[in-house]
Amino acid sequence: IQQKLDLLKNNAHNTVNSLLDTLALNLAAKVDDKIANGETIGLLEGIPFGIKDVYMLQGSYTTASSNLLKNYKSAYTATAIQKLLDAGAIPIVKENCDSFGHGSSSENTIFGAVKNATDTNLVAGGSSGGSAVNVAKDFTVFSIGGDTGGSVRQPAGYNNIYGLKPSYGRISRYGLMAYASSTDCVGPLAKSIEDIRIVLNIMSGKDAKDQTSYASAEINEDSILNSDSIKTVGYFKNFIESDAIDVQVKADFLATIEKIKAKGITVKALDFFESETLVSTYYTLAMAETASNLSRLDGTNYGNRIEAENLKETYAVTRSENFSEETKRRIVGGNQVLSQGFSDEIYLKGLAIRNQISENFNNDFNEVDIILSPVTPSTPPKIGDSLKDPHAMYLSDAYTVGFSLGQLPTLTIPQGTATGLQITAAKKNDELVLKFANFLK
Ligand code: GLN
């Protein structure tokens, strides 16, 4: 209880979820019984974990940290979460985040800004900030975040833990509240590569309820220990030479590169798209998708309905009163991008650049096995600062969004004093990412 109260100071938790407490206690009692009966228990049985508050868990509140869904109770359970429950893991908390995943700081939430695990004056990062802080503070052994454009990797980096965005489709999205469906990924955060591997294996697999999901082979423990197949590593020159990069982030990254060379790996500097291009392509598509996905939230079937004179007014008032400023900015932007007269020029152009980005990655992975990058150009800002300038906040996503558009597997590992190292491999090669992380240890 003391630990839970301490954590409330970081705002990592959402609604004090007594329903969840009851579920957790019941599950824990079953594990206790098994142990008392001398039965052997599975690897995850009794292990406490956290869930970003955008996943359905039947009977619990799923608020997306938004006023609109403040009182919404999940009617079913997400596939990825169900697989963890089936393995005996115990969900103990729904975690605070930027509402609907919109943000990079976990300040865009009705539950108060999430505070960084090491310095409470700083943001935890986002949007899966609560998930990262709970792991960093040992309240959960692992947490399940959601990563659309960096939301697992960036808070993992800001809180010095591990966070994986698997290949798009490796884990079913069924029951993850959709933000941008073409890049949304279910992603674990934990304190070790081994924990990431175990949880990834359990959640992976084809699901009839998500047509973009695919079947994948289990990644076994021994295969990660052998990194012989990794000969060449690349990094993007323009990321490291950019004026926007913090000196410490750059120094730590270059120190890692030296360490890799000393281990006999060839390192290549690669060309890549400018930050502005990556960020504007990602936000064009993500806003279009979120405007479309969130159109269902009008107070008719879900959420906090605010009655007005007529139906149209009811929709308008419900949405304008309940969505945050940031979410409204994205809905307005997204609808503009999709509207007649603009969609060819903006949306279709965004799709075309996305194809070029993917093409670029295909060429890169003919030359290198792994691509490395810092997770962010700078260290975590003070609470309040990123709210002042949305464009600056979007630009802070420059190093993560390209890999999302490419649907690649990419993992944050702690790195020196700065904000984490991002390890990326070709699509569906999640195993190689974990191998390389282990090799660097
Ligand atoms: N910061 C990015 C955005 O706001 C990524 C968020 C996410 O991955 N959910 O879109």
From TrEMBL:
It holds the Pfam family Amidase. The active site is at residues 52, 127, 151. Residues 10-434 form the Amidase domain. Gene3D superfamilies: Amidase signature (AS) domain (3.90.1300.10). This is Glutamyl-tRNA(Gln) amidotransferase subunit A. Allows the formation of correctly charged Gln-tRNA(Gln) through the transamidation of misacylated Glu-tRNA(Gln) in organisms which lack glutaminyl-tRNA synthetase. The reaction takes place in the presence of glutamine and ATP through an activated gamma-phospho-Glu-tRNA(Gln). Heterotrimer of A, B and C subunits. GO terms for molecular function: ATP binding; glutaminyl-tRNA synthase (glutamine-hydrolyzing) activity. It is an enzyme of class 6 (ligase). It comes from the Bacteria. InterPro entries: Amidase (IPR000120), Amidase_CS (IPR020556), Amidase_dom (IPR023631), AS_sf (IPR036928), GatA (IPR004412). GO terms for biological process: translation. It catalyses: L-glutamyl-tRNA(Gln) + L-glutamine + ATP + H2O = L-glutaminyl-tRNA(Gln) + L-glutamate + ADP + phosphate + H(+). Belongs to the amidase family. GatA subfamily.
